[in-house]
Amino acid sequence: MPIEQSIFAYQGKLDIAKTSDQLTGLTLAVKDLFDIAGVPTGAGNPDWLASHAIPKQTSSVVEVLLKAGAEFVGKSQTDELAYSLNGCNIHYGTPINPKATNRLPGGSSSGSAIAVANGQVDIGLGTDTGGSIRVPASYNGLFGLRTSHGVIAMDNMVPLAPMFDTVGWMTRDLDTLQKVAQVLLPELVSGEHTWTSSEPKNVAVLLPELDEKLLWREVHQTWLDSQTSFKQVKTIPVSSDWLKQASECFRILQGYNLWQTHKEWFLKTQPKFAPDIQMRIDWCQTISQQDFEQATQLRAEIQQQISVWFEQVDYIVMPTTPSASPLLDATDAWMANYRSELMGLTAPAGLAGLPQLHLPVLEDEEAPFGLSLLGPKNSDLALIHAAKNI
Fold first, then answer.
1. Using the 8-state DSSP alphabet, how is residue 79 labeled?
2. What local confidence, expressed as pLDDT, does residue 3 receive?
3. pTM flag (> 0.70)
4. What does the DSSP 8-state code read for residue 42?
5. 87 touches 103 (CB < 8 A)
6. Candidates 2.30.30.240, 3.90.1300.10, 3.60.20.40, 3.40.366.10; CATH matching 8-244+287-388
7. How far is CA 115 from CA 9, 50, 328, in A?
8. How far is CA 10 from the centre of its chain?
9. What residue stretches are annotated with the Amidase domain (predicted)?
10. ∠ CA 355-359-365 to the nearest 5 degrees?
């Protein structure tokens, strides 16, 4: 049953037998990319909704959460095919950011983020390909975890770019985020990156610079200086050229993967998208096999460079987003420049398949944002443990 479409695509209850009580008492919004048997999947686009049958199977990640006792409230809206970080949808509107009503909600997991931020649900399930958990978590003052690539199954759901797609979730508190992690990441409980000690950890601080603008600002450093659970061992200056190269590498690989994944549907259906998303999809068609192979080689080099960041380091502290959410009336030119800064920050975790945990600990012009803990692959639970010691 369709309801207020700026937040939810569908709302209702699901009758799935519980096998544990780990999440009993917690409510759940599911991004409208995950299939649920008997419920349409719209992927934020009416043409997708109209051209796909109602699913007969439920995404395994959703099923695990429901069997653990989470109470389904509804399927939350997403940017079209999850191919945006703004949270605007030309078909269903822009949900209101409850923490800063004059600013963007952030996408593409916008509906899940807003439902958590305004108290409608406890858990907002989403995906993160190029930042779609980290960005709305930052803009709405939430904790948000982008998981290691491949650690959670992505079956029975709409992909964006499978080579980067990950599952993630947002919550208002760390305890809830940890409970979900313990349900979805049981194989990491005794992994090599599991920390049980509360001893201070070795951290590096990422100092990204873009066009002579340092994205690690005084407000970040002030917060870091107030912490006692860190042993800072080094700083990692990242040049503007490196950020732009990483962003462009990610953009090419994501775009090529997106077009190859959905090419048949694009050509057959000729779906209608928002102008900015359509422009990106049109560009995806122009990416050649040679472009893809060159970007793949560059990705391997970037991965090697990122691995060096973690030498003698448990995790890296870094800005999640350049600032609080952009204003709703920001100009196209301003947004284009901001997107370049934003993608430079989100690309490293995507290119290296790493987990990243957003901490909502900062404010800018009375609007929330924060910083992140970036960890080695499969250190997802360790990052949560580290955050709880802060």
1. S
2. 37
3. yes
4. -
5. no
6. 3.90.1300.10
7. 12, 25, 19
8. 22
9. 17-185, 269-383
10. 135
